[in-house]
């Protein structure tokens, strides 16, 4: 795989002042594949997901992230089927998806294939009809009248946002810490899962996650992914966190509003300083982006391939959202049944190639196992180029994030070359 694709980039001007969690060895060269069980198949079951594990393995998938598998609350639920993130019971499986035993079998099969499984965990809130509401009302936030109320908060735009189908948990109560940690430990012990993706992780005290990770690691080494962008979460609790700023640049490139200059600026002047060994989740899409913002074609147009290459070659751990390998071209309904049209898996080979590229080149591994980003001067400021090196292994990436052909000159190569609009080149040693 000499030439494949080029891409974006993550800052390596990180600080490593804290004692970070010990990443599971298998996560260093890994990718993540997000599964929406409801929409993954017409059946919408865990068994249907399990049936596709051999295909995912062949595509090079390492970590399977299952969106929440728990029963969904009925009180104040949204749409016909409700939100996956309105958890009615933390230690049960949604009967629409199957049983706890079905999950055990799925995890066992994944492990036999050399894959790992993480569960989506909703630690900030529960459904209105979660048993904890009546059994432990002191575990929930109250309004001025002393009543449990729906989750309400100030969003980034400065407005007030309300999630009417869920109620907020009160982490001032340390008994809640025990109950939540025990619920998480149940799945590690009983089903053998390998970690969690923590929903709205920044809305839960970091100290809770710190102690939860310590308790879970006593059972087995786990992998923890935070839906957040806070360096402090990497101190003790989380292996990986969302790189939303980089994804924002990708979207602007897709609209023609940004390019190589913004990528270089992100590398040299990152918005936040993360520990050098922090994994940043890189993505072009996920369940939130797809359902509320759009499919890849809507967000990136012809730039999507280059942006995906960037998500694999810049520092971090890359994410595939289910359906992207079949060029998912619509928003999947969030509260209704809306199965993916798998067509002919048109992009399966593309993702297989990127997964292999990352695994075969230590320079592209995550955290300190991979190489830092070194920007390259290729004689054209419209072209984004960088190199990553780990030991003898090095990878060079050249990307044209514009709608026009661009000439460039790679140091050590005779003459100029040309990249077509939105194309890339990846150079690896023979």
In short:
The protein is of the alpha/beta class and 430 residues long. 28% of the residues lie in helices and 19% in strands. The strands form four sheets. Strands 1-2-3-7-8-9-10-11 form an eight-stranded parallel β-barrel. The protein has a four-stranded antiparallel beta sheet with strand order 12-13-14-17.
Pick out its properties.
GH; four-stranded antiparallel sheet; 13 helices; eight-stranded parallel β-barrel; GH13_cat_dom; signal; 430 residues; disordered N terminus; Alpha-amylase; alpha/beta
How are the elements arranged and paired?
Elements: E1 32-35, H1 37-40, H2 46-51, H3 53-58, E2 63-66, H4 100-112, E3 116-122, E4 125-127, H5 131-135, E5 150-154, E6 160-168, H6 174-191, E7 195-199, H7 206-219, E8 223-226, E9 240-242, H8 244-254, H9 260-268, E10 279-282, H10 287-292, H11 296-299, H12 304-313, E11 317-321, H13 348-360, E12 373-375, E13 384-390, E14 393-399, E15 406-408, E16 417-419, E17 424-427
Parallel strand pairs: 1-2, 1-11, 2-3, 3-7, 7-8, 8-9, 9-10, 10-11
Antiparallel strand pairs: 4-6, 5-6, 12-13, 13-14, 14-17, 15-16
Keywords: Signal
Domain Glycosyl hydrolase family 13 catalytic: 34-358
InterPro entries: GH, GH13_cat_dom
């Amino acid at each position: 795989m000499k030439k494949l694709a080029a891409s974006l980039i993550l800052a390596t001007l990180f600080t490593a002042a804290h004692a970070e969690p010990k990443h599971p060895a298998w996560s260093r060269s890994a990718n993540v594949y997000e599964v929406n069980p409801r929409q993954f198949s017409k059946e919408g079951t865990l068994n249907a997901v399990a049936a596709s594990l051999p295909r995912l393995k062949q595509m090079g998938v390492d970590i399977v992230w299952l969106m929440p598998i728990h029963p969904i609350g009925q009180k104040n639920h949204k749409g016909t089927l409700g939100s996956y993130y309105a958890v009615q019971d933390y230690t049960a499986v949604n009967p629409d998806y199957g049983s706890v035993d079905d999950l055990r079998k799925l995890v066992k099969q994944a492990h036999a294939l050399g894959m790992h499984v993480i569960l989506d965990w909703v630690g900030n809130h529960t459904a209105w009809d979660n048993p904890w509401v009546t059994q432990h009302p002191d575990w929930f936030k109250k309004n001025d009248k002393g009543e449990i109320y729906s989750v309400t908060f100030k969003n980034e735009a400065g407005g007030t946002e309300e999630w009417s189908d869920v109620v907020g948990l009160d982490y001032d109560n340390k008994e809640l810490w025990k109950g939540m940690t025990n619920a998480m430990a149940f799945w590690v012990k009983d089903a053998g899962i390998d970690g969690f993706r923590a929903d709205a992780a920044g809305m839960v005290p970091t100290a809770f996650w710190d102690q939860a990770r310590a308790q879970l690691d006593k059972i087995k080494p786990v992998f923890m992914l935070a839906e957040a962008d806070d360096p402090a979460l990497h101190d003790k609790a989380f292996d990986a966190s969302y790189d939303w700023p980089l994804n924002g640049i990708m979207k602007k490139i897709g609209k023609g509003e940004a390019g190589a200059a913004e990528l270089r600026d992100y590398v040299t002047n990152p918005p936040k300083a993360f520990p050098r060994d922090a994994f940043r989740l890189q993505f072009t899409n996920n369940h939130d982006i797809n359902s509320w913002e759009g499919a890849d074609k809507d967000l990136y147009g012809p730039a999507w391939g280059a942006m995906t290459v960037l998500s694999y070659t810049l520092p971090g751990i890359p994410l595939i959202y289910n359906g992207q390998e079949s060029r998912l071209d619509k928003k999947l309904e969030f509260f209704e049944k809306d199965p993916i049209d798998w067509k002919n898996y048109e992009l399966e080979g593309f993702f297989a190639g990127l997964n292999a590229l990352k695994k075969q080149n230590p320079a592209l591994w995550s955290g300190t196992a991979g190489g830092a980003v070194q920007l390259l001067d290729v004689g054209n400021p419209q072209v984004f180029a960088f190199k990553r090196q780990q030991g003898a292994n090095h990878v060079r990436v050249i990307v044209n994030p514009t709608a026009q052909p661009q000439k460039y000159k790679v140091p050590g190569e005779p003459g100029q070359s040309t990249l077509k609009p939105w194309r890339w080149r990846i150079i690896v040693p023979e």
